[in-house]
Amino acid sequence: MKNLTITVEDSVLEWARVEAARRGTSVSRMVGDFMAEMKQREDTYERAYLAWRTDERTWQGGAGADGAPEKEARSAQLVRAGGQNGRNNPSGKKEQA
Predict the structure, then answer these.
(1) Tell me: the pLDDT tens digits for 37-61?
(2) For residue 96, what is the enclosing H or E element?
(3) Rounded to whole angstroms, how far apart are CA atoms 63 and 55?
C-alpha cells in the first residue's frame, strides 16, 4: 500500500473529517474507498463499451447469403420507429400516416 498527499480546501477537509467520523472510518480510508470505487466503475464501463463495440461490429458485418441478419435488423428498426409507413397507437395497431 502506498501513501498519497492531496491538497483540498479547508472546508472540504472539515466536511471529510465529519463524514468519516459519522461513518466510523478515517479520511484516508474514505478517499481510498472512493478511488477504488471509481476504478471499478471505469473498469465496468470499459468492459461494457468493448462488449458493445464487439457486438456492433459483429452485427454490422455478419450476413448470410439470404441476408437474414439485415432483415432482422431492419425489422427491429421499424418496430422501434413505429413502422414503415405508419405509427403505433395506444391499442398497438398501426395507423396510416
Answers:
(1) 999 999 998 888 888 888 866 666 5
(2) strand 94-96
(3) 14
Q: Do the beta carbons of residue 88 and residue 94 sit within 8 Å?
A: yes
Measure the CA–CA gap between 17 and 77, rounded to whole angstroms: 53
Contact 89, 96 (CB under 8 A): no
C-alpha dihedral (73, 74, 76, 82), degrees to nearest 10? 160
Grid cell for residue 81: 420507429
CA angle 7, 13, 18 (to 5 degrees): 160
Contact 20, 30 (CB under 8 A): yes
> What are 5-49's pLDDT values in tens digits?
999 999 999 999 999 999 999 999 999 999 999 999 999 988 888
CA distances from 48 to 14, 41, 58, 75, 79 (A): 37, 10, 15, 25, 25
